[in-house]
Amino acid sequence: MTERLYYEDAHMRTFTARVASCAPGKHGFDVVLDRTCFYPEGGGQAGDTGLLGGVRVTDTHERDGEVVHYCESPLEIGTEVAGEIDWDARFERMQLHSGEHILSGLVHKHFGYENVGFHMGADFVTIDFNGMLDDAQLAMLEREANEAVWQDLPVEVTYPSPEELKTIPYRSKKELTGQVRIVTIPGYDICACCGTHVSRTGEIGPIRIFSCVKFHDGVRLEILCGRRAYEYVGRLIAENRKNSALLSAKPAETSAAVQRTLDELAAQKLRAGQLETKLFARMAEALPKDGDALLFEEGLTPDGVRRLADAVMQGRSGRAAVFAGTDAGGYAYAIGQVSGDLRGLTRELNACLNGRGGGKPGFVQGNVRAKRAEIEAFWREKA
To answer: pTM here?
Structure first.
C-alpha cells in the first residue's frame, strides 16, 4: 500500500520515493510509488499534477488501494525518484475544499440541509443542498463563513475508533465502514472527508458565493475561496470600473445608471415605434389599393416588417408583401391578405428562394436566402 504523505502534511511539496511499479496505460505510464504526496482524485477534489524524477505527472488516481501517477514517460522500477507537486494548484484546492466545509457546515447548522453534491470545476466550485435558500440567508451564510476565516481556527484531522465515531455528530453523504477520517473546524463543521485541507482557517482567504439557482429539490451554489475568489473578484472590479467610466457613474452606482439607460432606451423604442407606425400608415395610404403590393425596405426589424405588411394589407384586395434585408444577408418577409389563404404560396416561396417560415392562412412570416431580383421574379410569376 502506498504511504500517503499528504495525510501527514498537506503542505508537503517535495519528497523522495521508490518506484514500486510502472506499466503502460491509457494516459501514458501508470506509476506506483512506495510513498507519495500526490493526492489522487476523490471526494470532489481533482488529482495532483507535478513532476516525478523530472517526468511530468498529468493526473493522479486511486486504483485498488494504490495511488497511481499518470506519467508522460516511464520510470525504472526500484529506483529512487524526487517528486514535486504543482503547489499553486494544490493550495487552491485546499482553500476551496476547506471553504466548502465551512459553508456546508453552516447550512447544516442553521437549516438542517445536507450537502448532496460537490465539485471543483474549472470556473467555480459547486455545492448542491437539498433545501432552498433565499438572498438574506445566503448573505448571512457568507458573512459567518468569512468570520470563521478571520478567527484563524485550527482545522483538526482525527481518526476516531468505531466506538468514538458513534458519539460524533459528523456529516457524511453515505454510510461509512473501516477507518474514518474526520475533519473538524471547531464551531462550524465536523465532516468525514478524504481530501486535503489547510491547517488553519486563516489560510482559506475570502469565501464568496457568486450564484444560487434551483437544482432538483434544493439549490446549487457557485462559490470561490482564497486565491480563486480574489482573482475573480478582481476581474469583476476591473469590468465594473470600465462600466463606471462608460456610464459616467460612481463604481457603486453602476446598476442604477444601467437602469436609467435601459429606461431611456425603452422610452426611445416606444417613441420610435409610434413614429414608425405613423410612417407605415402613410406609406400604405400612398399605394394603390387594387392588386398585389411588393415592398423592399432596409433596416426594419422582424416586428417592423410584420407591422408594415399589416398596414399595407388593410383595405387591399390583393396580397401585401414586405421584404427587408440585403442580397448578401438575405431577407426577412411578411405577407398578408385579408380573407386570403397564403399557405400554398408560402410553401412555393420557401422552396424556390431557400426560405423558412409560415403562419396563419391570412398572414405569414419568414426569411429567404435569395437576391432581390430572384424575389421580384418569383412575385411576377405568381401575380
So the answer is: 0.80
Which residues, including other chains, have CB under 8 Å from residue 231's CB and lie 6 or more apart?
none
Instruction: List domains and CATH numbers for the chain.
Output: 3-85 (2.40.30.130), 91-239 (3.30.980.10), 284-382 (3.10.310.40)
Asked if 345 contacts 379 with a C-beta cutoff of 8 angstroms, the reply is no
Question: From CA 12, how far away is CA 10, in angstroms rounded?
Answer: 6
Q: What is each CA distance from 143 to 50, 137, 146, 206, in whole angstroms?
A: 35, 10, 5, 10
- Strand (E) positions, 26-169? 28-33, 35-36, 50-52, 55-63, 66-71, 80-85, 115-120, 125-129, 156-158
pLDDT tens sequence across 152-195:
999 999 999 989 998 999 998 677 778 899 999 999 999 999 99
Per-state percent for the chain, helix, strand, coil, to nearest 5 = 35, 30, 30
